[in-house]
């Protein structure tokens, strides 16, 4: 397995691979890019921040683009379509890494879809990170779930300065209202219909398994900002979402 990005996730996977004796070669900011000159076929995990994706893709040879596996949080579909990669292999990581030296905390199975789904899901599972390959329709459900989770717990985390476990325990009402506001956007824009009780239960269960993780509003345009933008375009309500964004200093009062 090749991987691009030596941040929290990239380094944590490197440690897991070493412990399990799995193949893993890491391309960092200034080293390892020559590995992309190898023949196509080996999956390449893209582990960089969303805002760095365009610069990364500019360095990937055309013949290796089909090997890329994107596992970023947030609204990825429009960006990938703009780079002629609408059918790229995608993954949603349901685990947390607190910092560059911390161990991985597993919260749930990590779904993968696309050409390399079988290899990638098997590699993750062998690394101790349960994963499952699936078709696009089912993957879309979990894709939207993770988008809603990171945006909901991010804005609540900043508004109340609490970790996800505390939020799940003490703010279930606001979690449900936010999830409802955001899933309505997902249904309109992505065509994915998520049942509210299932969604809230999954979100809180996941949070309880990584309780000390402190989410926040980050990469705004890909997460909370995307929901606000699309809600505005479609005329959908975002009352609590906007109120909490203002409280956390992420939206004009």
Helices and strands in order, then pairings?
Elements: E1 2-4, H1 8-20, E2 25-27, E3 44-46, H2 53-59, E4 68-70, H3 77-82, E5 89-91, E6 95-96, E7 105-106, E8 110-113, H4 117-126, E9 131-133, H5 136-160, H6 164-170, H7 172-190, H8 196-209, H9 224-234, H10 239-247
Parallel strand pairs: 1-2, 1-3, 3-4, 4-5, 8-9
Antiparallel strand pairs: 5-8, 6-7
Helix pairs in contact: 5-7, 5-10, 6-8, 7-8, 7-9
Structure in a nutshell:
Helices cover about 50% and strands about 10% of the residues. The chain is α/β, with parallel strands linked by helices and about 250 residues long.
So how many helices? 10
CATH architecture of the largest domain: 3-Layer(aba) Sandwich
Compute the separation of the termini in Å: 47 Å
Which strand-content bin applies to the residues? 5-15%
- CATH-defined topology of the largest domain: Rossmann fold
Biggest sheet overview:
7 strands, mixed
- CATH homologous superfamily identity of the largest domain: NAD(P)-binding Rossmann-like Domain
Low-confidence stretches: none
Written as H for each helix and E for each strand, in order along the chain, the element string is: EHEEHEHEEEEHEHHHHHH
Q: What is the CATH first-level class name of the largest domain? A: Alpha Beta
Helix content: 40-55%
Residue-averaged pLDDT = 95
Shape assignment: globular
Query: What does the radius of gyration come to?
Result: 18 Å
- Please state the structural category: alpha/beta
Number of strands: 9
Strand order of the largest sheet: 2-1-3-4-5-8-9
Overall structural domain count: 2
């Amino acid at each position: 397995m090749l991987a691009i990005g030596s941040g929290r996730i990239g380094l944590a996977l490197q440690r897991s691979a070493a412990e399990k004796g799995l193949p893993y070669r890491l391309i960092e900011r200034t080293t390892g890019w020559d590995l992309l000159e190898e023949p196509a076929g080996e999956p390449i995990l893209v582990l960089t921040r969303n805002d760095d994706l365009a610069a990364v893709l500019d360095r990937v040879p055309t013949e290796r683009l089909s090997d890329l596996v994107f596992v970023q949080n947030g609204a990825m579909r429009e960006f990938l379509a703009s780079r002629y990669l609408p059918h790229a292999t995608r993954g949603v990581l349901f685990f947390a890494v607190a910092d560059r030296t911390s161990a991985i905390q597993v919260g749930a199975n990590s779904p993968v879809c696309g050409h390399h789904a079988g290899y990638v899901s098997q590699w993750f599972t062998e690394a101790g990170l349960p994963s499952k390959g699936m078709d696009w329709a089912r993957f879309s459900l979990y894709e939207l779930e993770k988008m809603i989770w990171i945006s909901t717990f991010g804005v609540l985390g900043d508004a109340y300065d609490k970790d996800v476990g505390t939020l799940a325990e003490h703010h279930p009402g606001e979690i449900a209202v936010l999830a409802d506001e955001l899933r309505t956007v997902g249904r309109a824009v992505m065509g994915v219909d998520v049942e509210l009780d299932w969604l809230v239960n999954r979100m809180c269960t996941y949070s309880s398994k990584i309780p000390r993780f402190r989410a926040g509003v980050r990469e705004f345009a890909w997460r909370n900002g995307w929901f606000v933008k699309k809600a505005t375009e479609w005329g959908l309500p975002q009352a609590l979402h906007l109120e909490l964004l203002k409280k956390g200093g992420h939206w004009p009062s």
